[in-house]
Amino acid sequence: MRTSLCLSLLFISHACFAAQPSSEAPKSSWAFTFENDVFVNSDNNYTDGVQVEWSRVGKVDGGERSLLDWLCRGFACNSGADVTRRTKIGQLMYTPNDITIAAPQPDQRPWAGLLYLERSYDVPKGDARAMTYTGLVGITGQHALTEQAQKLIHKRITHSPEPKGWDNQIGTSLGLLASVRDRR
Questions:
Q1: Cα–Cα distance, 121 to 178 (Å, whole number)
Q2: What single string gives the DSSP state of each residue in 120-148?
Q3: Strands 12-18 and 3-9
Q4: What is the pLDDT, as a whole number, of residue 8?
Q5: Strand, coil or helix: what is 67?
Q6: Under a CB-based contact definition with an 8 Å cutoff, are residues 31 and 6 in contact?
Q7: How far apart, in whole angstroms, are the C-alpha atoms of residue 154 and residue 20?
Q8: Which pLDDT value is given to residue 26?
Q9: Facing residues of 40 across strands?
Q10: CB atoms within 10 A of CB 31
Q11: What does pLDDT average to in each consecutive run of 10 residues of the chain (184 residues)?
Q12: E-strand stretches of 76-128
């Protein structure tokens, strides 16, 4: 199996390290993305994002094949062809402008985080087209572990001020997303 490792940072394109010649497309790859406002000294209320992605190209079988067969009946794609499967696990973090204020800041973006798992499939459709099917499940509130993540990042990585308003974060909610995209 050929593999490659990719690393991306905010405003820096993916840098990939591969174990095969660059002319060969990898059958699987890993990517790690770390975005943080410290890189550009401004966050516009989006402060941090961390994501690990695993992609794999090949035939699908079992339950995945049955699902894609069913979807392709409606969208005329080829579920028997090589399919790109992507699995992403990540966390997004949003805060008010001043994180050193412990009191609620009703005129600012609320303290919020999303911990998520996403799965997508790119299925060939012909004529350089593909269907992309995506499903995402995520959670907000304390169970998203955003407070702990921000405090760790500020203390160990960015040496930024301690965030003090996480007692004001939005409540726990479960989020589900499904999307279908026809692309060229």
A1: 12
A2: EEEEEEETTEEEEEEEEEEE-SGGG-HHH
A3: antiparallel
A4: 41
A5: helix
A6: yes
A7: 37
A8: 55
A9: none
A10: 19
A11: 39 38 66 79 70 94 93 91 96 90 93 96 89 97 95 86 93 96 88
A12: 83-94, 112-126
CA distances from residue 133 to 23, 26, 117 in whole angstroms, order as listed: 28, 21, 14
- List the structure tokens of 141: 């509130």
Q: Which residue reads 């339950």 in tokens?
A: 63
* Residue 159, pLDDT score: 84
Q: H or E element: which one contains 180?
A: strand 174-183
What is the spatial distance between Cα 55 and Cα 3, in angstroms, rounded to a whole number? 10
| Confidence at residue 148, expressed as pLDDT on a 0 to 100 scale | 95
Is residue 30 within a helix (H) or strand (E), and if so which, with residue range? strand 28-36
Q: What is the pTM of this model?
A: 0.80
Q: How many CA atoms lie within 13 A of 152 on its CB side?
A: 6
Note the pLDDT of residue 43: 56
Cα 1 versus chain centre, distance? 24
